[in-house]
Amino acid sequence: MSTGNAFLVLSAFLASGVEFVEALTIVLAAGLARGWRSSLAGLGAATVVLAVTVAVLGPALTVIPLQALRLVVGALLLVFGLQWLRKAILRASGYKALHDEDAIFARELAEAQSAAHLERAGVDWYGFTLAFKGVLLEGLEVVFIVLTFGSAQGSIPLAALGAAAALVLVAGVGIAVRAPLARVPENAMKFAVGVMLTTFGIFWSAEGAGADWPGSDAALLGVLGFVCLFSFLFVRLLRREHRSVIRPVEVEA
Amino acid sequence: MKRLAAFGRFWWEFVIGDDWLVAVLVAIAIGATAVLAGANVAAWWLLPVAVPLVLWLSLRRAIRSA
To answer: Of A43, A117, A146, A159, which alpha carbon lies 20 to 30 A from A19's?
Structure first.
């Protein structure tokens, strides 16, 4: 497997894994608070919508010329990846609260338990909508990543394989423990996904704009190393700055 | 009309997110790469230089507005 394809599978696996963990938390909260029938119906309906989206957009993307596709996809991934990376760096440096799946689950559960009961076609409407929206929104990110990564690298099936592996793993563990997957190192995974998206974004958008990378596909490793380097440097700088801002306040208190 | 606006807002938040300046600066950097490449000048280095600068600027903006 080439460097590009190995990165493709790994990136799709990590990015999808993070989204599936978040979707699982919402489905669990809806199921426990409003009943499994409505929660699973919402999950099923959202899965159908996502499958139709992939079936329509997937083949359409493969007919676009590769250079134009890499330019558009690279630019989108770069902007999208920098969003992830910015949030991850702010979390790692202490400027933003860490993502806490247990706290999110408790909040979703409390909201779902307090909502009014309204039944339509035999399912609890609140539970259905909660699961449907949660899975659809998290799933759209997976679809976006699988289709953009897959089409730009020339293999949507490989990207889908990475996402499917993450789905099997998260769903399997979720069914086994029936609790939010709080032990998954989600913040570290989000950091890694931000790095991957930014790396692919830089590589493909430069290629799409007509630039030639020295060493061709092997340059991807160099870009990855460089993105890791400046990301960790920024975390270090901001962490030090955050500590120096916090300390005087703590002393005063 | 309302649904169309909501649809547009969803995609804006999904792709552009909290800081629109990142999208603008990335677009300018990619455009400059295309101009250099079109003039047969080595252009691969431009994005690796621009991206850390854009990210640092966006981080400072996020911290200032927090």
So the answer is: A117
| Neighbour tally for A34: CB within 10 Å | 25
A252 touches chain B (CB under 8 A): no
Stated pTM of the model = 0.79
Q: What is the rounded distance in angstroms from the CA atom of residue A223 to the CA atom of residue A198?
A: 9
Report yes or no for ipTM above 0.85: yes
Min Cα–Cα distance to chain B from A177, Å:
31
> CA-CA distance, B22 to B18, in Å (whole number)?
9
Hey, is the C-beta of B41 within 8 angstroms of any chain A C-beta?
no
Contact B47/A205, CB-based, under 8 Å? Answer: yes
Q: Which residue of B lies nearest to A145 if distances are taken between CA atoms? A: B15
pLDDT tens string for chain A (253 positions)?
A: 677 788 888 888 888 888 888 888 888 888 888 888 888 899 899 989 988 888 888 777 777 787 888 898 899 889 989 998 999 999 999 888 877 777 777 887 788 777 777 777 777 888 888 889 889 988 888 888 888 888 877 788 888 888 889 888 888 888 887 776 666 677 888 888 899 989 999 999 999 999 999 988 889 899 999 999 999 999 999 999 988 876 654 544 4
Q: Tell me which DSSP letter residue A119 carries.
A: E
- Is some CB atom of chain A closer than 8 A to the CB atom of B28? no
Q: Does A164 touch chain B (CB under 8 A)?
A: no
- Cβ contact B16–A238 (<8 Å): no
Ordered by start, the domain boundaries in chain B are 18-65
Nearest to A170 by CA among A25, A11, A9: A25
Closest-CA residue of chain A to B50:
A202
A72 touches B at CB < 8 Å: no
